[in-house]
Amino acid sequence: MATYLDFENKIEKIQEEIVSAHAIANMEAVEKLQNDLDKEVQKTFGSLSDFQKLQLARHPDRPYALDYVKYLMEDAYEIHGDRAFRDDPAILCYIGWIDGQKTMLIGEQKGRGVKNKIKRNFGMPNPEGYRKALRAVKMAEKFDIPVLMLIDTPGAYPGLGAEERGQSEAIAKNLFEFASVKVPMVSIVIGEGGSGGALAIGVADKLAMMRYSVFAVISPEGCSAILWNDPSKVEAATKALKITPNYLLEHKLIDDVLEEPLIGAHRDKQTAGNVVKTYFLDTIKALRELTVDEMLDQRYKRLTAVGAFSE
């Protein structure tokens, strides 16, 4: 069963009518309803608020990292464990092929259904997850394999055990190490990018965001609780934080916005997968034309330009 958000009610109604028309083989009605659907999609998704985009970024049907592994990779083989504590299911590491390009894919996985959400810790990695990601990147560097990282987390896990095992150190070490890895690295926010949990796999040659994704230092709920002590201020907090792709692109905090289907990746997952694949392969091709020193220098300048200002 597809899940519809409040502002998608008219779309849901038209799609139900299309299904009914198909059932009685009324193709004339199907064609008319399809035109109505296209117009409604343009009307609804052409003027979304920041809060509605946040809702889409968190949509339960939105493709997660495992979905992209399925759509993108051939002969995918999963890498487990950080060789220090345990395997963290909230971080996925796969080596495989994307259209003939050997690739190391690292992603944050939220999980579907109660059991999987608990297993994946709702997409909140522990420090061993970030150390697993670092191990996978170092392996990719050893064998000259490009890296694709998919960000989708509300944030790093803030539990007592995570802090005891060095959560902040694990994140900081990834930021430091990824800056000098000698293979092309591409990072894409596919859903929710939360604070250090997103930054830990966000240091790359190119950082892009899907059309309906968000990237924030704090969740709007956390922001409204701290600033106003009022959960009803979430929409105002979302707008004030400027966490959607266009704002971030304007301030040069990301490099590109990927135009997923207008109706959302959750309604057309295969097309969304093709968008990610095309962007990754095109970016890797461009980066391969640089020498390693040129690539690292470009990456360094990109990272140090964040927060730059002039008087």
Describe it for me?
The structure is a single chain. The protein is an alpha/beta fold and 311 residues long. The protein folds into 2 domains: 6-47; 52-304, 2-enoyl-CoA Hydratase, Chain A, domain 1. The protein has helices at 9-23, 27-45, 50-57, 65-72, 113-119, 127-142, 160-164, 167-178, 195-199, 220-227, 234-241, 245-250, 269-288, 292-304; strands at 74-78, 91-98, 101-108, 147-153, 185-194, 206-210, 214-216, 256-258. Strands 1, 2, 3, 4, 5, 6, 7 and 8 form an 8-stranded mixed beta sheet that branches. Helix 4 crosses helix 13 (269-288). The chain is globular, with a radius of gyration of 20 Å.
How many DSSP H or I helices? 14
CATH architecture grouping of the largest domain:
Alpha-Beta Complex
CATH class of the largest domain: Alpha Beta
Low-pLDDT sequence parts: none
CATH superfamily caption of the largest domain: 2-enoyl-CoA Hydratase, Chain A, domain 1
Task: Label the overall shape.
Answer: globular
- Class by SSE composition: alpha/beta
Overall tally of structural domains: 2
Strand content: 15-25%
- How large is the radius of gyration? 20 Å
Query: Mean pLDDT, rounded to whole units?
Result: 93
Order of helices and strands: HHHHEEEHHEHHEHEEHHHEHH
Q: Quick one: how many beta strands? A: 8
CATH topology of the largest domain: 2-enoyl-CoA Hydratase, Chain A, domain 1
Helical proportion, percent range: 40-55%
For the sheet with most strands, the description reads: 8 strands, mixed
Head-to-tail CA distance between termini: 55 Å
